[in-house]
Amino acid sequence: MQYEDDHLRQVLMTTKVVACVGMSMNPVRPSYYVARYLSLKGFTVIGVNPGHAGKQAFGQTVYASLKDIPEEAKVDMVDIFRKPEAVPEIVEEALRHVSGLRTIWMQIGVTHPQAATHAEAKGITVIQDRCPKIEYQRLFGELRMGGFNTGIVSSKLPPR
Question: Model-level pTM greater than 0.85?
Answer without folding.
Answer: yes
